[in-house]
């Protein structure tokens, strides 16, 4: 381990901030049912409290993403409560996520719905989210549109593109200075024939149509099998169009598995693209990194800690790539050496360096162990158990 490596790893860790999703602390399930956890958070207060535990042991998660419908059901009226909780728990509200996929009205879409009154309703919700973000001092409004259709011929795909362009232009016009609109794409689910914002190209074109404060958000789980995600990231970096990242892993679909649990090398390659871009352009990217995982089976707080530590490990590994050497090897098409240069960084065990960094920052060397020893989980399990008893839900 060279001094240079230690230096780059520490610098990378100082820079890496990972936002947590409020919904990742709540009970969730599949469409076949939920397995309830006694310790799961059921209120916004509990979500803030749980997120604060993750930040306490990792030092890397100062913000909590909020899903408006779930966390601020009364909209702007709930903003005061959120501010008080942020103060109490030392965690700031992060990206504001509109929810235009759950209400009955959205059965055939939100901004892409053929019915103008439903499009208006969805638009109003996103505009409300902008006002909430402004009030809470949040920069990013991060909508995911579930719009699509299930059967060929049942919707006019091109009309719906127009509706999205129109709606997003209005959304953009309402953005406050400094705010960003992050457009997320996903190829399928809940729609299984066509999805209106299915891939990065569609998200990119819609962001361009909306205006300069609109950017693309990449969720690792939202791709077809075998898709080269780091190449998408490279294209978005090249065009200065990447605004955010949702971390998770997947084996089959949008599985919301723990980051790096299936393919850690892919996450490493994504981080490498970002860090190599920064090194080459001598600039800092402004990408909001967030976890987007809902754990059905794992303990939620533990899973979050595990995820954040994995992100730190893979980010630190990617930071150790010798960019100058790699560039020279790429230039001379020294294929084996170039590949080994990248792979060498992936296989480097950065955990001792991370432990040292944690110590130097007054953080526990082993965040998971520190959380387990804190007794927090036992405490909230007792407190919350009663309330969860009997509340089972099924989606089937
Ligand atoms: C979607 C997408 C969104 C998230 C919802 C809950 O698949 O990833 O980002 O807000 O799930
Ligand atoms: Mn997502
Ligand atoms: Mn998803």
Tell me what the structure shows:
With 396 residues, this protein is an alpha/beta fold. The chain contains 15 helices and twelve strands. The chain has helices at 3-15, 44-58, 68-71, 79-89, 116-136, 157-174, 200-210, 229-238, 264-281, 300-319, 323-331, 335-347, 351-360, 367-374, 376-388, and strands spanning 20-21, 29-30, 33-34, 63-67, 92-97, 140-141, 148-149, 180-184, 194-195, 214-219, 242-247, 288-291. The chain has a five-stranded parallel sheet with strand order 6-8-10-11-12. Strands 1-4-5 form a three-stranded parallel sheet. Strands 2-3 form a two-stranded antiparallel ribbon. Helix 2 (44-58) packs parallel to helix 4 and helix 6 (157-174) packs across helix 7 (200-210). The longest helix is centred in the N-terminal third of the chain and has 21 residues, at 116-136. The termini are far apart. The structure holds beta-L-rhamnopyranose (RM4) and manganese (II) ion (2 copies). The site of one manganese (II) ion has 5 residues, from loops.
């Amino acid at each position: 381990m060279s001094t240079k490596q230690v230096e780059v790893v520490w610098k990378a860790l100082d820079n890496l901030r990972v936002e947590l999703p409020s919904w990742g602390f709540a009970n969730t399930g599949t469409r076949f049912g939920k397995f309830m956890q006694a310790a799961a958070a059921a209120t916004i207060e509990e979500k803030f409290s749980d997120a604060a535990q993750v930040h306490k042991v990792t030092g890397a998660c100062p913000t909590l993403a909020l899903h408006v419908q779930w966390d601020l059901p009364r909209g702007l009226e709930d903003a005061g409560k959120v501010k008080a909780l942020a103060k109490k728990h030392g965690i700031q509200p992060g990206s504001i996520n509109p929810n235009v996929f759950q209400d009955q009205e959205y059965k055939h879409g939100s901004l892409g719905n053929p019915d103008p009154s439903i499009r208006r309703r969805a638009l109003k919700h996103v505009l409300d989210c902008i006002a909430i973000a402004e009030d809470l001092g949040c920069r990013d409004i991060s909508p995911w549109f579930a719009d699509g259709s299930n059967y060929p011929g049942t919707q006019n795909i091109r009309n719906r593109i127009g509706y999205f362009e129109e709606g997003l232009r209005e959304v953009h016009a309402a953005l406050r200075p400094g705010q960003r609109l992050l457009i997320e794409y996903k190829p399928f689910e809940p729609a299984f024939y066509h999805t209106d914002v299915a891939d990065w190209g569609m998200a990119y074109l819609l962001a361009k149509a909306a205006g300069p404060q609109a950017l693309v958000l990449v969720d690792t789980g939202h791709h077809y099998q075998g898709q080269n995600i780091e190449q998408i990231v490279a294209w978005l970096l090249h065009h200065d169009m990447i605004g955010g990242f949702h971390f998770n892993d997947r084996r089959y679909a949008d599985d919301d598995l723990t980051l790096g649990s299936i393919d850690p090398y892919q996450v490493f390659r994504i981080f490498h693209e970002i860090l190599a871009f920064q090194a080459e352009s001598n600039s800092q990217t402004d990408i909001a990194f967030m976890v987007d995982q809902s754990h059905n089976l794992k303990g939620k707080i533990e899973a979050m800690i595990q995820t954040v530590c994995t992100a730190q490990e893979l980010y630190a590994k990617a930071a150790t790539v010798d960019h100058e050497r790699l560039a020279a090897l790429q230039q001379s098409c020294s294929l084996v050496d170039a590949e080994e240069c990248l792979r060498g960084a992936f296989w480097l065990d950065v955990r001792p360096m991370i432990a040292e960094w944690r110590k130097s920052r007054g953080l526990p060397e082993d965040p998971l162990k520190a959380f387990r020893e804190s007794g927090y989980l036992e405490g909230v399990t007792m407190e919350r158990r009663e309330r969860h008893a009997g509340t089972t839900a099924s989606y089937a």
